[in-house]
Design a protein that fits this description.
With 230 residues, the protein is of the alpha+beta class. It is built from four helices and ten strands, in the order E-E-E-E-E-H-E-H-E-E-H-E-E-H. The strands form two sheets. It has a six-stranded mixed β-sheet.
Length: 230
């Protein structure tokens, strides 16, 4: 689908390409080659007017003396994404990541980490940055999918690609990637990441919901996540 290579430490300019996925009445648009060409791979994902960027950088050599995957996932939102200026009148700086964004970073991490071979000991950094937020379309879905695809087209050997969706339950009906307003009415907040073969990560919070509805929501999320992964 996309191709990106780095040779002899040179910076390769990724071709500008665009790929879209229809999700019912929604659409995810992926773009590459527009930003972040110093990174190993960069992908922009747009949902409505919400735009997120996923960047991947990989060290050239393995870290010595470790027996684990040194993967770091950073999820960050800039105040300008929502049209705001950070800080007080006298201090215009971005603050530290909120607990919500730390948890979102962990959700992305939990989806990506099992896809890497256990023999990889190179330092890998994945950055998810919210560039624009329209307060309607969920930035976590766009950011996760931007990161998923960036890893898939990078030089990192991994089993991918992945797709991620959020599922809500409103009035007994399953809702794909519910809006911010709809999420407040939902009895279920389910985040599903899946490969073409299986589900690799589930995160959920819910009110008292029947088990049958939970299982139905998982299968629903898996179907749409796999459509993105294709």
């Amino acid at each position: 689908m996309f191709g990106l290579g780095k040779k002899d430490g040179a910076t390769a300019i990724a071709p500008q390409r665009e790929y879209s996925v229809d999700l019912g009445d929604q659409k995810l648009v992926f773009k590459t080659g527009m930003l972040g060409n110093q990174a190993n791979a960069t992908v922009l994902c747009q949902s409505g007017d919400t735009v997120c960027m996923g960047n991947v950088t990989v060290s050239k050599t393995a870290r010595e003396g470790v027996d684990f995957l040194p993967l770091q996932v950073v999820y960050q939102e800039k105040y300008y994404a929502g049209g705001k200026i950070a800080g007080s009148r006298f201090r215009k700086r971005e603050g530290r990541p909120s607990d919500d964004f730390v948890l979102l970073g962990r959700i992305v991490d939990r989806g990506l980490r099992p896809m890497f071979a256990k023999t990889i000991h190179n330092d890998i950094q994945v950055f998810c940055t919210v560039l624009s937020y329209d307060f309607e379309n969920d930035h976590s879905v766009a950011a996760a999918n931007a990161a998923n695809l960036a890893v898939a087209i990078s030089d990192c050997p991994c089993d991918g690609p992945l797709g991620s969706v959020r599922v809500g339950l409103i009035g007994g009906e399953l809702v794909l990637n519910p809006s911010r307003e709809a999420s407040l009415k939902s009895d279920l907040d389910l985040f599903v990441t899946a490969s073409l073969e299986k589900i690799v990560m589930i995160e959920a919070g819910a009110n008292q919901v029947p088990e049958a509805d939970i299982l139905r929501a998982i299968e629903f999320g898996k179907k749409w996540a796999q459509k993105i992964a294709k």
